[in-house]
């Protein structure tokens, strides 16, 4: 069997990914499927970190648009990511994967505080690290948190799991004529306003030449195929 194309990856999941077909909250079946996929790549010896959003529980941007103080709204969103991180930890530990939830906002009763060297040590020991609470600062999205944490742990790639199989010229759910990009540059993503990740995250990846693979999270085994270097989804590079 060939070796994985990436040795250390950061998996970026939206909070909405955990909802499944529900309108709110966490679908245990979806959490279980994600845990199964992560178990597959852990078995290959790949070191795995996860950044998860909180949009299935609370969206700070949406709340601030309705009049809530933006910083307060963002902190509430960060706490939602901790709830999701704990749910994902439980699902993975049911698969025998040793997992650590690491929070940018200190809450020692439920998660470890973020200490970069400790997080890297967990990865080296074969544990999955779930980074929660974003960057710990308001006005930054979990996309930016994913790019930042990927740099800090020296990840080889960001794997962004979505509902579609890559990056399209338009939303394929709405526009049947939308075409998919197999490969695209960071600058093209920014210039064309493609909603891969927010502009801050894309710029951070571009400055540090960190590739991004966008793939369909709903297809079982996609994560492993992407890790093995198969042409799954879309690749963003320089």
What would the keywords be for this entry?
two-stranded antiparallel sheet; alpha/beta; about 240 residues; 8 helices; globular; single chain; about 35% helix; 11 strands; Carbamate kinase; nine-stranded mixed sheet
Description:
By secondary structure, this protein is α/β, with parallel strands linked by helices. It has one domain (8-237): 3-Layer(aba) Sandwich (Carbamate kinase). 37% of the residues lie in helices and 19% in strands. It is built from 8 helices and 11 strands. The chain has helices spanning 28-43, 60-65, 70-93, 116-124, 142-152, 186-191, 199-207, 222-227; strands spanning 8-13, 47-52, 99-103, 112-113, 128-132, 157-162, 167-168, 180-181, 183-185, 212-216, 234-237. The strands form 2 sheets. The chain has a 9-stranded mixed beta sheet with strand order 4-3-5-2-1-6-10-11-9, sandwiched between helices. Helix 1 links the parallel strand 1 and strand 2 (47-52). Helix 5 (142-152) packs parallel to helix 7 (199-207). It is globular. The model has no long low-confidence stretch (mean pLDDT 94).
Low-confidence stretches: none
Strand order of the largest sheet: 4-3-5-2-1-6-10-11-9
Order of helix and strand elements from N to C terminus: EHEHHEEHEHEEEEHHEHE
- Strand content range: 15-25%
Q: Would you summarize the structure shown here?
A:
The protein is built from 8 helices and 11 strands. It is an alpha/beta fold and 238 residues long.
Question: What order do the helices and strands come in, and which of them pair?
Answer:
Blueprint: E1 8-13, H1 28-43, E2 47-52, H2 60-65, H3 70-93, E3 99-103, E4 112-113, H4 116-124, E5 128-132, H5 142-152, E6 157-162, E7 167-168, E8 180-181, E9 183-185, H6 186-191, H7 199-207, E10 212-216, H8 222-227, E11 234-237
């Amino acid at each position: 069997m060939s070796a994985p194309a990436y040795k250390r990856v950061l998996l970026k999941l939206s909070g909405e990914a955990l909802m499944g077909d529900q309108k709110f909250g966490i679908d245990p079946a979806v959490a279980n499927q994600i845990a199964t996929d992560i178990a597959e790549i852990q078995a290959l010896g790949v070191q795995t970190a996860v950044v998860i959003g909180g949009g299935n529980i609370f969206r700070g941007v949406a709340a601030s648009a309705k009049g809530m103080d933006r910083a307060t709204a963002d902190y509430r969103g960060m706490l939602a990511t901790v709830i999701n991180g704990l749910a994902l930890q439980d699902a993975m530990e049911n698969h025998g994967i040793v997992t650590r939830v690491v929070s940018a906002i200190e809450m020692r009763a439920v998660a470890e505080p973020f200490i970069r060297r400790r997080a890297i040590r967990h990865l080296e020991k074969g544990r999955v690290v779930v980074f929660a609470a974003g960057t710990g600062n308001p006005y930054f999205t979990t996309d930016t948190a994913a790019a930042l944490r990927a740099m800090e742990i020296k990840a080889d790639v960001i794997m962004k799991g979505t509902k579609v199989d890559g990056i399209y010229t338009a939303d394929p759910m709405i526009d049947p004529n939308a075409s998919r990009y197999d490969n695209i540059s960071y600058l093209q993503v920014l210039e064309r306003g493609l909603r891969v990740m927010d502009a801050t995250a894309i710029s951070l990846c571009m400055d540090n030449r960190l590739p991004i693979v966008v793939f369909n999270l709903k297809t079982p085994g996609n994560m492993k195929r992407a890790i093995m270097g198969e042409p799954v989804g879309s690749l963003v590079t320089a």
